[in-house]
Amino acid sequence: MAKWVEMSDAFSGKAGKNAVGLLLATGICLFTGKPAQGLDISVPIGGDIQSAVDQVSASGGGTVNLATGTYVLNSSLRIKSKVTLNGSGNQATVLQATGGFTAIQQASEQLDNVAIQNLSIIGKRVSWAQGIVISSGSSYHENVRISNVNVSECGAGVHVKRANNVTISNCNFSGNGTSVPADLKFAHNLYIRACNTVKVSDVVLNGSPSGNGLNISYCKDVTVVRCEAKNNFFRGMRAADTDGFTVQNCVLSGNGDVGLIANSEITATKNINFMACLALNNRGGGIQGVSGVTGSVTDCVASGNEVFQFNLPDAVKKSQNQTTVSLAARVLLKDAPNGKGNIYAPFRFQGPTGIFSATGRAIPPLLTNGANL
Questions:
Q1: What CA–CA distances, in Å, run from 234 to 214, 269, 323?
Q2: Pairing of strands 354-356, 349-351
Q3: What's the rounded Cα separation, in Å, for the pair 277 and 24?
Q4: 58-101 pLDDT, tens per residue?
Q5: Is there a contact between 192 and 198 (Cβ–Cβ < 8 Å)?
C-alpha cells in the first residue's frame, strides 16, 4: 500500500533506514511540504489578461506579469485563487476601464491567496463601477493582498467583504465616488466589511466626492498605520460594529464630517486604540467615539475642527492628547526609540529647516523627547 512520506523524514532516517531506497525503487511520491513553483505568464500590451489568469489558476497558482503601458479593459477582469496579478509599477502599468463595470473582481466565492500589486486602475466614475471588489456572500476569502496599487476616478474605490487576513499597503485610493445623490455617504475610497485580521498601512485615501476615505463595518482586528484621509465628502476614517480598531500615526484633515470616528450601526465598536494621530480642520469634528465605544486615545492632536476637537465617552481612556498643532512633533516622537532617531511623518508640517511631508517619509533626527520642530 502506498503512503506519503515527508522527504525530510526519508533522508533523515525518521521514516526508516531503508526509506530512501524503497521510495526510489517503488516510485512512491515524495512530499516536500512545500508547494511546487508557480507558473509565470507575461502578458503584452493588448494581450488577454483574463486568459493568463485562468491558466495560472488552473495550473495551481503563480503570477501574471503585466508590461509597462496601458491595458484597455472592456469588461471586468476576474481574479482567481492563488494568482498574483503583478504590474511593472504603479506609475508604469495602467488598467483603463472603458465603461460602467468594476475593473477587477472576484471570480467566485472563497478565494485564497490572491494578490494584486504594482499597477494603477483608472475608471470612468460611473455609479458603483468600482476599482477592485473582492467580495463573498457567505463563505470567506483567505489571504487577500493589495500592494503598491493606485485606484482613481472609479464609482467607488476598493471593496473587500468577508475575507480573513487582508493586507493593503503602499497604495493610493483617491478621488473615487460620484456626485449621484444615492451614492453620497456610501461610495468610499476604501470599504472593508465583515473581515477578520486586516492591516492597512501607508495608504492615501483622499478626495472622495461621495464618501469616506476609509469605511469599516462588522470587522475584527483592524490596524491602520501611517495613512492619510483628507478632503473626503463625508468622513476621514470610520469603523462601526467592529472589535479591535487600531489607528496609529495617521492624518485626518479637511473632511466634510468627522475626521476619525468609532460608531455603530447595531453595536458600538469596541477596543479602539487611536495613537499619535492628527485631526485638523474637519467640518464635523476631530476624533469621536459614540456611547458604548471602549478603548483608548493617546498622544493625538485635534485642532481647528468646526464642531469639536475630541468627543469621547468615559469608557475610553484618554492620555496626553492635545488641541494645539504646534505639538505635532511631540506626537511624531512616539515611535522614535528613546525620543531620538529617524521617525515617520504621517502629515505635512513646517519645521525650522523646511517642510517635511507625505506618509512614510523619514524626517531628520530629533534631539529630545517632546521637542518641537
A1: 10, 19, 22
A2: antiparallel
A3: 61
A4: 999 999 999 999 999 999 999 999 999 999 999 999 999 999 99
A5: yes
One-letter amino acid identity for 58?
Answer: A
Q: How far apart are CA 28 and CA 217, in angstroms?
A: 50
**Nearest-CA neighbor of 303 among 280, 283, 287?**
280
Half-sphere exposure of 282 (CA within 13 A, CB side): 34
- What CATH code is carried by the domain that includes residue 164? 2.160.20.10
Instruction: Measure the CA–CA gap between 170 and 84, rounded to whole angstroms.
Output: 16
Angstrom distance (rounded) from CA 175 to CA 177: 7
Number of domains in the chain: 2
Residue 364 neighbours by CB under 8 Å, 6+ apart: 342, 353, 356
Report pLDDT for 326: 54
Q: What range does the domain containing 2 cover? A: 1-34
* Beta carbons of 208 and 234 less than 8 angstroms apart: yes
Taking CA atoms, 284 is separated from 11, 132, 178, 258, 276, in Å, by 67, 29, 21, 5, 20
